[in-house]
Each structure stands twice: as C-alpha cells, then as structure tokens.
C-alpha cells in the first residue's frame, strides 16, 4: 500500500476519513496535531511551549515537528504505508518531508485534498466533539454526525470533549494559515502528478467511497 497524505482546511473531515481508511486498509493514522497534543500534555518546557502555540492556532516550530514526525514514521507499523494528516503544512515542510522519506526509504504515494468552503467549516468547527477514550469524532451541528446522547460516545461510552482550538477566533487564524501557507503545496503536488481532489462537502460515506476509488485505481 502506498502512503497517503491528507491535505484539507481545519475541520474538513480528515480525521474522520483517516479513521475509515485506517480500519479498512490497516494503515496507521499519523496526525502531527495528535502527536503535538500528546507532547503538550507533559509538564516540561517543550510541553508548555507546544501548549501555548496550539491554543493560538499558530504553527509549532519546524525542528520540533520534524523530530517528532521522523521518530513516529521510523516505527515498525509505518513500514507498509501510513496515512499522514496535518503534515506538510507549507512548502518548506513539503521539501523537508522528501528528505524524511529518503531517510526512511519511502515514497510520496497519494496526496488527497478535501476541498470545502470556509462558511461550512466554521459551522463544523464549533460543533466538533471528540471522544477522550477512543478518539471517535462527532458533530453536534450535523444531523448525520451527532452523538445519540450529548457528551457521550456512541461507540464506547467515553466522554466527549471539545478541542481548545475549536473556537471561531482560532479557526479564523488556522484557516488564514491554511490559505496562505498550505494551499500552495497543492500546485507542487499537482506538478508531481500525485494530487487527487475530492469534494469535502458531501456525506462521510460518499467521501469515503470516492477516496476508495482513488486508492483502488492506484493499487
Ligand atoms: P490539527 O490537529 O492538524 O488541526 O493540528 C492542530 C495544531 O497542531 C495546529 O493548529 C498547529 O498548531 C499544530 N500542528 C499540527 N501539525 C503541524 C505541523 N505540520 N507543523 C506545525 N504545527 C503543526
């Protein structure tokens, strides 16, 4: 299986789709946001620095993110492919990623872009809830993604929480960063012939099906 990079603005559904692919193709889901959130929970200088950056919606320093990512991608479970979510976020990171791939003897694989409009994202972001136990993602503003009981995970009964940066002001900041820094990467990957664009304003099932078509065609 080839590696998959997911590129999308915040709350476009990367996490949800990654979880579906993870299960279906038995690939690990590597999210730099998750890695950084885990690191942010430790009471160290590094943890405090990351916590501060995450709360504003800015980007964590490249050297820190690279080190953590290289460490994670070097683990055995990534040898047969993985889903990368949240990285690269700018062209410098895209170039750096190729160095990381060379070190690991891996290829770029597919780049999947979930395309979705800003107003829809803003509505989604304020409704996003995540299970603290199994990581399942819900949206209280969506009829199809709402949990049956508010604050409780349908799958495991865990408590649902809202991410610190899932508020309108942090969203605006993250969205601007996405437009200015992340979107230009798409042209770079298009030229390399590895980019697939999928409409993100659709049901979870339909989007998953379109991603499947891309993956099956490329196998
Ligand atoms: P995400 O879970 O992908 O929305 O990421 C949450 C936050 O983690 C971002 O707003 C950034 O502060 C940080 N982050 C995630 N990925 C990166 C990255 N590739 N480079 C720098 N910061 C990142």
Summed up:
The chain has 219 residues and is an alpha/beta fold. The protein is 48% helix and 14% strand.
What does it look like?
This protein has 219 residues and is of the alpha/beta class. It has a single domain, classed as Rossmann fold. It contains 9 helices and 8 strands. Helix 1 (14-25) packs across helix 9, helix 2 (32-40) packs across helix 3 and helix 6 (118-127) packs across helix 7. The termini are close together. The mean pLDDT is 93. The structure holds adenosine monophosphate. The site of adenosine monophosphate has 18 residues, from helix 2 and helix 3. Residues 10, 31-33, 36, 53-54, 57-60, 65, 86-87, 89, 93, 165, 174 line the site of adenosine monophosphate.
């Amino acid at each position: 299986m080839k590696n998959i990079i997911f590129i999308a603005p915040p709350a476009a559904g990367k996490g949800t789709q990654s979880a579906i692919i993870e299960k279906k193709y038995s690939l690990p889901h590597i999210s730099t946001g998750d890695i950084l959130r885990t690191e942010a929970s430790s009471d160290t200088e590094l943890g405090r620095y990351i916590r501060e950056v995450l709360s504003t919606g800015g980007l964590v320093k490249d050297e820190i993110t690279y080190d953590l990512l290289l460490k994670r991608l070097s683990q055995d479970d990534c040898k047969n492919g993985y889903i990368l979510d949240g990285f690269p976020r700018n062209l410098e990171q895209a170039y750096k990623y190729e160095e990381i791939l060379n070190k690991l003897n891996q290829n770029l694989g597919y780049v999947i872009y979930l395309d979705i409009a800003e107003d829809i994202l803003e509505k989604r972001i304020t409704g996003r809830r995540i299970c603290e136990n199994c990581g399942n993602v819900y949206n209280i503003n969506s009829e199809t993604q709402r949990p049956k009981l508010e604050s409780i995970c349908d799958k495991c009964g865990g408590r649902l929480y809202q991410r610190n940066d899932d508020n309108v002001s942090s969203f605006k900041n993250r969205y601007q960063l996405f437009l200015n820094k992340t979107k230009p990467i798409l042209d770079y990957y298009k030229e390399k012939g590895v980019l697939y664009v999928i409409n993100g304003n659709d049901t979870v099932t339909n989007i998953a099906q379109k991603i499947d078509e891309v993956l099956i065609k490329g196998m």
